[in-house]
Structures are given as C-alpha cells and as structure tokens.
Amino acid sequence: AWAGQNWGGVFIPRIGQEVIVDFLEGDPDRPIITGRVYHGENAPPYYPPQNKTKSTIKSNSSPGGGGFNELRFEDLKGQEEVYFQAEKDWNLLTKNDKNQTVGHDETLKVGNHRTKTVGVNQSEIIGVNKIIAVGANHSEQIGANMTLMVGQNKAETIALDSSETIGNTKALTTGADYQVSAGKDMNTDVALNQFEQVGKVKKVLTGEEIVFNCCNNASITLKKDGTIQLKGVKIEIEGCGEVSIKGVLVHLNPSKPNCVQRAIEKAKDSKFAKTPEGKKVITKVEDLNKAGNVELKSLAKGIRGKWGSGKITVNGSYENDPDAIASELVHEATHAINEDEFPNQQYCIDEEVRTNTNQLDLYEEQRSCGFRDPELERRRKARQSGKLRDDVRSRYNQLPEHG
Fold first, then answer.
1. pLDDT tens profile 77-117
2. Minimal CA–CA distance to 302: which of 318, 320, 289, 288?
3. Residue 315 half-sphere exposure toward CB, CA atoms < 13 A
4. Inter-residue contact 342 to 332 (CB < 8 Å)
5. Would the pLDDT of 270 be above 80?
6. DSSP label at 317?
7. In DSSP terms, which residues pair with 31 in a beta bridge?
C-alpha cells in the first residue's frame, strides 16, 4: 500500500477481479484488500512465457469504453522500450524547466491542429538540412526586426505573382553581378527624383526604338531604321572644343519663330500672371498652343477666340511681333476656354476684376510691363467715338497717358 494525506497510489478494484483480503487485527468486521491476482479467466495483459521481460501498468476503460491507458516497460536486451498510451487526452505539466534529449531520430505526427506558444525567446539549431512543406497557405508575422543570413546560395521560385511593399527605404547591395529578366513588360515609377551612376560603361539595347520625353516639350527618339529625332521648343548645342556635323547631305532649315509661345512667355512675366486666376488662364493658353489649337491666319483684326470652342486664331500679321498680342491673347483665351471655368468674365480673367472699368486697369498694368497693347488703342477709338459708358470714360481719362 502507498497512502498519504491527499497523496499516494489508488487503484480501485473492478467488478470481476480476484482480490486478496486480510483483516485488521483479525477482526472480520475490518477487511482490507491487500492485492489482486490473475487466474484462468482474468489473464495478465501479456502472457508471461512469451513476454517475461515486459512490465506494465495497464488500465481498462469503464464499461462501454473498450480502451485503456498504459505505461509499459520492455527490458529485453537490444529492444528496451518505454511505451506510454493515453486512450484519449494526455496533459503534461512542468512547473519549471523541461529538458529532453533524443540520441537518434525523433518523429512527431499530429493528426489535426498543433499550437505552440513561447513566452520569450525560441532558438532552433539544425546541424544539416531543414525541409518545411506547407500544403496550403503560410503566414508569418514579425513584430520588430528580421535577419536572414544564408552562407552560400539562395534560390526562390514563385509560380504566380509576387508583391512587396516597403513603408520606408529599401537598399540592395550585391558583391558581384546583378541581373533582372522580365518575360514581358517592365515598368518603373518614381514619384520624385531618380539618380543613376555607372562606374564604367553603360549600354542600352532595344529591338525597336528608344524615346526620351520631357513634359511633352522636348523629346529624343531613336528608331530602328537609324533615324534620330531631336525635338524641343529651344535647342542649344554647346561644345568646349570643336563641334562637328557630318553627313552626306546636311540640311539647315530654320523655321519661323513661334510668336504665340513667345507671347505666352511675355504674359508669364506680367503682374497679372502672379494672380491665382491669371496663372490658371495662362496655363490653359499654353495647353491650347501645345495642342495646336492656336493658329495664325489672315484676319481683318487682331485675335479671335470663339466662346467655348477651345481654339484661338491670331492674325498672321503679328507673326513676328509677339509683344503686340501678349495681353490680347490671354484676354481671348477666356472666350475660347469653357466659360464654365471662368463664369461672368467676358472682359477679364482675374476674379477680383470683373468690369470694363477694372479691365482698363488690367490692360494698363500689362502695358506698364512693356506690352504694346492693341486693346488700349481699340478702347481709345471707342472713347473718341463716344461709345464708352460714362463711368468707363471717367476711369479711362485718369490713366497717365490720357489724363
């Protein structure tokens, strides 16, 4: 017997077991079971002649269970074994450290889920190879830093797509060569600046053509047939030494200066261009010109912009005199541009200037910046003919050159 205060060994006899009964101090009213024995109907778990080296503690599930828990020892030389079976659950509690040493192989097989929780650190050292096979998805989350060190080669194969998002900076350093191969297209998008430095030679090879384009104002195109096109509003070639141009035939065919673009540049220097609305309108005019919607034609008068048409026509006589059309070009743009963008501004662009009277101030301001303003001449003739309203005539007479 092994008994203590809330401790000891307990094996309650089951129905059908043969027990050894003794009596305390020979008193028949005080029986005590001192043991249990096997007999012909109750055979031991392992028949002794064939299993004489086996020792076991084997239980039996309650009626209807059909199972058992067992702790078995095999002491046959060369086949020593400790066998443990939990018919259902096995709970192991270690209140402090647990050390486990396996001298050879270890196999762990889990039929369903497995969960492992480590409160602080976990270290894993593998002397040779490690293989992990995941049948479906694999997720890994790291709260702080991650370091991966590979002593030799690393190969990564992804059957479909790969996506990488980095919240801050990424640095890539290779000790030797670096190669990127794309089976189809490759796109690089840089939000701000890009700087590239090559220590020696850089070669770019394409099968069709190469196009360099800056804001649609300047471009260089290299075509498959050997043609090189250089386009820009203004092109400067400067050499510290000799500049040579060689060809079987060299054609120099200067075109006429773009008076509209020069007029726009003149308008950009005015005080009017510094206002929010002025800057907006001048940008619109420049867009119209780039799109080819400002053209030179023979007109009876200076410039015309039809309401909402998106087109401006300039009298061809101004071809070599952009200063003469700078202010009127911007004025006519308010007609050509969608009037919903500039409501109620038939005569001006600045949202603070909305009347014929203030328009005279606007033109005077532009004239003071060096514009030769044909609109002032037109207003002067209107004044002389008596067609200006009284309030406009009064303000017009206050201008320095007319007062």
1. 999 999 999 999 999 999 999 999 999 999 999 999 999 99
2. 318
3. 13
4. no
5. no
6. G
7. 23
